[in-house]
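Can't paste images in this forum, so I'm doing it all in text. The chain is below; anyone willing to post the predicted structure tokens underneath?
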Amino acid sequence: MMASSVRAQDASAIRAARIAQNAAMAAGDVDRAAAWWTDDVAIRRGLGASVNGIAAYKAILERAPVSDTALVYDRKTTGVTVSDHWPLAFETGTWVARRGGKGAALITGRYSAQWVKRDGKWLIRGEVFVALTCGGVGCASKSLP
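Text version of the structure:
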């Protein structure tokens, strides 16, 4: 198979994994959402807080049970670049947070992610989220935590 065809298949797999992870997070299925993270995953949250390791990331999701008032984050992939040399890929996209996953966007932004292919499966090793817009309650403050 040609290298470009393999890269296209890998990019499709990453896009599908992101959609499946979004669904798991929206359903509150922390273990299923975590199936796409490496043990040493590192995240920079929308306002800058860092999270290191799968246990810490899972703890954030476990503290925010699914409800009509909980923020539900949805990530939309806008691009995936797969390395032709290493088992790595770079994903970019936009994200939005809504109460209960419905209604008006409360926070939106952009993100990037580093994916690594291990044992034939693409996993997220790092993510950076940047909050860019805000609407509704909680947006009055201009300072960062």
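Residues 3-134 form a domain with the Nuclear Transport Factor 2; Chain: A, fold (CATH 3.10.450.50). The mean pLDDT is 90.
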